[in-house]
Write a structure and sequence with these properties.
Layout: H1 33-46, H2 54-65, H3 70-82, H4 90-101, H5 106-118, H6 126-138, H7 142-154, H8 162-174, H9 178-190, H10 198-208, H11 214-223, H12 228-249
Length: about 260
């Protein structure tokens, strides 16, 4: 049963929270104009206290981005990548992701890497993709960690190395990233870097299915090759991993389909 993994992922919905109290300057040090524009832009993008308006968000992000605000640069790049409030423009997305990435923004580093990996808005360049993924992975970005793992899996800009791919995918999977969970499961199912293990494959696919519905079909295909005892073992593995993911990320994991 040779199963194929999912490919490069990027341009996830921004998940930056509004500034917490520790992020907000004191009254003696009022937020800069760029920070005010960024916060207001987030309100329009999220529909927080105002009607959702991506076009207005883009204007405010641009005002902040042009003043060097890294988060605004990232979010403006995202709007261009998704065509929200502006026409979809991969070159502009790459431009603003690069601005944010040059300031060390991990999400921007990952997304710029993905543009190089796919040739969107820039000339395809696997070495550049690898470079940006590595920088983001060093900051603990799970999506970049997964994407870097797939570079090793496919041997793009590096020598193919299933062991290194497995290590990186497991790291991202344990941080709750569903694409990595899917791809890690398929390495278990295919016996790549590890002995074939359908119980682990089933467990990771079931966890991933909470965010990627197609993983449930793969899980059910694998279940046909398993005994009731194997599935019970997978149940135990999945329950343990869900608990560990919750501890690491602070996000709750549902009990899954096999509970």
């Amino acid at each position: 049963m040779l199963l194929s993994p999912l490919g490069v992922q990027a341009d996830v919905v921004p998940v930056r929270p509004f500034p917490t109290p520790k992020d907000i300057p004191s009254k003696a040090d009022e937020p800069s104009k760029a920070e005010k524009d960024y916060r207001r832009g987030r309100q329009f993008a999220d529909g927080n206290g105002v009607g959702q308006d991506y076009a207005q968000a883009a204007k405010l992000y641009r005002s902040a981005a042009e003043k060097g605000h890294a988060a605004a640069q990232y979010d403006l790049g995202y709007l261009y990548a998704q065509g929200l409030g502006v026409g979809r423009d991969w070159k502009q997305a790459a431009y603003w992701y690069r601005k944010a990435a040059s300031q060390g923004d991990a999400e921007a580093e990952n997304n710029l890497g993905a543009l190089y990996a796919t040739g969107r808005g820039v000339h395809r360049n696997d070495r550049e993709a690898l470079h940006w993924y590595q920088l983001a992975e060093e900051q603990g970005d799970p999506e970049a960690t997964s994407n870097l793992g797939m570079m090793y899996f496919r041997g793009r800009a590096v020598k193919r190395d299933y062991v290194r791919a497995f290590e990186l995918l497991r790291k991202a999977a344990e941080l709750g990233y569903a694409v990595a969970q899917n791809n890690l499961a398929l390495m278990y199912a295919n016996g790549q870097a590890v002995a074939k293990d359908y119980a682990w494959a089933y467990a990771w696919l079931d966890i991933a299915s909470e965010k990627i519905s197609a993983c449930a079909d793969l899980r059910d295909r694998i279940a046909k090759e398993m005994s009731a005892e194997d599935i019970a073992h997978a149940h135990d593995l999945g329950a343990r991993e869900r608990g560990l993911i919750s501890e690491r990320t602070g996000a709750s994991q549902s009990p899954g389909a096999f509970q």
